[in-house]
Design goal:
Blueprint: E1 6-9, H1 19-34, E2 38-41, H2 55-66, H3 89-102, E3 105-108, H4 112-125, H5 137-145, E4 151-154, E5 161-166, E6 170-175, E7 183-185, H6 193-203, E8 208-212, H7 219-229, E9 235-239, E10 242-243, H8 259-264, H9 269-277, H10 292-298, E11 309-310, H11 313-326, H12 329-341, H13 350-360, H14 369-373, H15 386-392, H16 397-409, H17 416-430, H18 435-446, H19 454-461, H20 463-477
Parallel strand pairs: 1-2, 8-9, 10-11
Antiparallel strand pairs: 3-4, 4-7, 5-6
Helix pairs in contact: 6-7, 9-11, 12-13, 16-17, 16-18, 16-20, 17-19, 18-20
Amino acid sequence: MDAPVRVRFAPSPTGYLHVGGLRTALYNYLFARKHGGTFVLRIEDTDQSRYVEGAEESLLRSLRWAGLQYDEGPDVGGKYGPYRQSERLALYQEAAEELLRAGHAYRCYRTPEELEQLREEHQKSKNPNRLDVRLPREESERRAASGMPSVVRLLVPDGETIAFEDLVRGPVAISSDIVDDQILLKSDGFPTYHLANVVDDHAMQISHVIRGEEWLPSVPKHLLLYRYLGFEPPRLAHLPLLLNSDRSKLSKRQGDVAVEDYRDKSFYPEALLNFVAFLGWNPGDDREIFSRDELVEAWSLERVNKSGAIFNLDKLAWFNQQYVRMRPDAELAEELRPHLAARNWDHFDTAYLAQVAQLMKERVTFVYEIPELAPYFFTEPTEYDADAVKKRWKPESGERLKVLSGAYSSLAEWHADELESTLQKTAETLAVGAGQLIHPTRLAVSGVGVGPSLYHLLEVLGRERCLVRIERAIESLG
């Protein structure tokens, strides 16, 4: 690439960062890192009517949690700042004046009521071309002289084909006749997205704009602005829509929730990023698990799809499951602590918790599920699952467990292999199948009928705890 790669993620502080925004940020981040470029964060806060207090801080927090470190931005600075558009108003007003002087823009004095009536008439006419909002010159001058408020609109030429090469979609051509005379500067002096976006992308030397497909219809307006202002446009790439499983557009009601919500639900940031990377991209082989560095190496715009990407929460849960399994046991042990503390089960050492994690991580999607699924690692069973008792505890189970408990109490080593061989020998002595001891023993030490490998469960719980629980079960169940 000729010029240095500079990309930007430019959210508006109108709410939380949702998963679609996270994907845009991730793809820009990956493109910058892959090409040794710069990843810029710009806050597009010019629509003051939609500004939400605290939204910018929430956006920054979500990006930090996801590990998407930007090189320039409102809180880290950079040579092309400021990075909040509300602090760059003079630049946009200057650009608007330049467009007015050159005849590429005009002041529009139409009232909201007039515009509404024109829209209704245009809709009824079924005219596919742009809505004509231009006033005769004499009327514009009369309204200007009377002090009426105005907006600045782009003067779109007639009969022109505006063509460009999209890095995802290929060649795109749109007739200027269907492009509206876009408002560029509002009556309060604040720019719309379109003017601010073009001015800032040029001023910040953005080389590639990677954003959602919903911005595709705006490209002709932007390209006209680049031309009229004498700017070289960046390369453009428009990402596919995110869809529900029924292929409808992903909505907040159907699952497009805040990144912070995924964090609060205990998803790992690595799992969420890995999942989001596949929303519109694939590596060309059957690999699915990628670290961030591996994504930088493998990801490319050439492998981004044109068609919509299905957002599948089950697949996201699967990714998190894989990351739980790959996590070192000692790390899982520390992650367990707050969930145990909430139940006043916070007196276990790290070595014990790591053993529990090793046994349970193949069986859970989230760490917090361990104490939910297996409370018996942390507290004595106070009752026994009724279905398991009915199915697994026979009238003779108590006497059989007494024999097994005696054999277990005399073991020199309390290891899974020894525990298994001892149970097998006891079953032979009693002339019963091993299952006649395995299932009642599990019920006795855990209170439930299912769980991890019995012998590893016994080993982790320890001799004293197991023998006490077996004795208590015999007393309780007979």
